[in-house]
Design goal:
The complex is a heterodimer of chains A (373) and B (188). Chain A is an alpha+beta fold and 373 residues long. Chain A is built from 13 helices and 8 strands. In chain A, helix 1 packs across helix 3 and helix 4 packs across helix 7. Chain B has 2 domains: 88 residues, Rna Polymerase Sigma Factor, Chain: A (Orthogonal Bundle); 89 residues, Orthogonal Bundle (Arc Repressor Mutant, subunit A). The chains are: A alpha+beta (373), B mainly alpha (188).
């Protein structure tokens, strides 16, 4: 059985489904009529099917081997994550233990204690200056890291056998032991600096340090020096600022909507028609339609730190944010609803405890009434 | 939290088009749990998950390479899940007692359904004995659906014309071996 290259390609195209139109019809006719072509087609189809089966099995085996040889990605991820987390924790602890500044200071002081009295005085003076610098310098320190460091320190270094001063006085007057104590505890004070403006600067024992790190708390400061230090690093909190306030008369318009709803041509009405309607209503019943100035409201102009533009209205005072005091403002009340006119635009003011954004009145009928009044 | 080792959909498709078989393993691992959960929730057990997953991954591989200008219109996870769902529902259908009978199957379709009495294992054996380049070339062409350009790259051929001529030569060689090995009766 020998098929020509042309027949081979034709059969290929037919099996792949790429033979179309007249070529397809021709091939089908030939296939029906010629047993030789039928045989060639069947053989080629069988061989292709066998090739496909072999390749599929090969790929499946490849996948199975690949999956067996390597851990699934999800597992690998978890392992890598765990390894990274462990390595990072170890590195962090090691870094804290090795490079912790107060340990260096402590070692230095311990070594220096063996020197002569003169050199000791100099060292004490330097140490007190360093301590003061550390106290005054606000540094962001993670309390968790500190807790780890303190725990490490408790394990590695022996508990200092120095008597603890409860309330410090002027730092310059501190004894050597107290300086060491201060130096030892300074990071705790720094950590409290990062969290609060009111700083607790007091000497506590090392166990108290670790306790205070576990449960952060503010200790009342007592000395005047400490108060000065606290005020130096006090953060300035920006607040909304009032620019000014004015009283505005509220033009009250009580007009029944029913009058407008009855007429579908309300939009088309001219100002005179509306006035007439209001006057007629006034004659009939003073409660139905009134256009008179009845009360005045205090309007405060505020400057927001976040550039908020809106208002707050509690029924008595309107606080306007982001509106200049020089802007022409008109207040109108219609059906017990308060409207404010700023820069030729009417906004509805809702009584609320919260700050609200100004909502512009877009209803043509309502605008017509408000403008006409 | 982290997505170490997670390859983007675009990269997977690109690597598939380049004929990188390693990506099949990646795809399998990446979506195994998803497909497994679906099968277990739909009357399946763990024994079938591997087969469905393999078939799904290979179906994606074939679709990407066979269809010209294949583009992913959804997330790859959605695509593979759809394939896996179809395969699993097809399998479930097979398992039901009542099977649909194609009443037109007996009709003569003009020689198209002519089947040869050939032993598949012998045929597979002949393919195994083939020259590796020829076997790969024919497999890449018929099963994977690689373009002649990709085949030329994978098999280090000079150009695409070499692939075309070599493909016919290889097939002719295989065909003649098959004809020689089988009896004349088997081929009728």
């Amino acid at each position: 059985m020998n098929t020509s290259e042309e027949t081979y390609h034709l059969i290929n195209s037919y099996i792949a489904g790429s033979l179309k139109g007249r070529d397809l019809d021709k091939f089908k006719t030939r296939l029906r009529e010629k047993p030789e072509l039928q045989q060639a087609y069947a053989l080629q189809k069988e061989i292709i099917a066998a090739l496909e089966e072999k390749r599929e099995a090969e790929l499946k085996a490849f996948i199975t081997n690949g999956v067996k040889n390597k851990q699934p990605i999800a597992m690998w991820n978890k392992k890598v994550q765990f390894a990274l987390a462990t390595a990072a924790s170890i590195a962090l602890i090691a870094a804290v233990v090795i490079f912790w500044p107060k340990q260096d200071g402590q070692t230095e002081l311990a070594n220096d204690a063996e020197h002569t009295e003169e050199s000791l005085d100099t060292v004490i003076e330097d140490a007190s200056n360093i301590t003061r610098d550390i106290l005054l310098e606000p540094r962001p320190i993670d309390t968790q890291i500190l807790a780890i460091a303190e725990t490490q320190k408790e394990l590695i270094t022996p508990e200092p056998t120095i008597e603890i001063a409860e309330d410090t006085e002027v730092l310059d007057d501190l004894t050597e032991e107290e300086i060491i104590e201060q130096d030892y505890e300074s990071p705790q004070k720094d950590s409290s600096n990062t969290g609060e403006n009111d700083i607790a600067v007091s000497t506590t024992s090392s166990t108290e340090v670790s306790k205070s790190l576990e449960k952060p708390k503010i200790i009342e400061k007592k000395s005047a020096v400490e108060k000065d230090e606290a005020s130096e690093i006090e953060e300035v909190v920006l607040k909304d600022e009032i620019i000014g306030s004015q009283y505005y008369t509220v033009a009250s318009v009580s007009l029944s909507y029913a009058d407008f709803e009855n007429s579908s041509e309300a939009l088309k009405r001219s100002r005179s028609d509306l006035e007439k309607q209001v006057l007629e209503a006034e004659d009939d019943s003073p409660t139905e339609a009134n256009a008179k100035a009845t009360k005045s409201l205090k309007v405060e102009f505020w400057k927001s730190v976040v550039n908020f533009k809106g208002y707050k209205y509690n029924g008595r005072v309107i606080q306007l944010y982001g509106i200049s005091i020089s802007e022409a403002i008109t207040l109108k009340e219609l059906d017990n609803r308060l409207y404010i006119k700023i820069d030729d635009k009417f906004y509805f003011l809702e009584k609320s405890k919260n700050h609200k954004r100004l909502i512009e009145v877009t209803n043509a009928t309502l605008l017509n009434v408000l403008q006409n009044e | 939290m982290f997505n170490f080792g997670k390859i983007s959909d675009e990269t997977i498709i690109e690597r598939m088009k380049e004929g990188d078989e390693e990506v099949l393993v990646t795809l399998y691992k990446q979506y195994y749990t998803m497909v497994k959960n679906f099968i277990l929730k739909n009357n399946g057990d763990e024994t079938v998950v591997d087969d469905i997953m393999q078939d799904s991954v290979i179906a994606v591989w074939k679709n990407v390479n066979t269809k010209e200008d294949f583009t992913l219109h959804s997330k790859l996870s959605t695509y593979i899940m759809t394939i896996a769902k179809n395969l699993w529902f097809k399998e479930l259908k097979k398992r039901t007692r009542f099977k649909l009978v194609d009443e037109t199957s007996h009709l003569d379709q003009g020689g198209e359904n002519m089947k040869l009495n050939m032993d598949k294992s012998i045929l597979h054996g002949i393919i195994d004995e083939m020259d590796e380049t020829c076997r790969k070339l024919l497999s890449y062409f018929y099963f994977d659906g690689f373009s002649t350009k990709v085949i030329a790259q994978k098999l280090n051929f000079a150009n695409t014309n070499t692939v075309k001529s070599k493909k016919y030569q290889c097939f002719k060689k295989l065909q003649s071996t098959v004809v020689k090995r089988f009896n004349k009766d088997d081929l009728i």
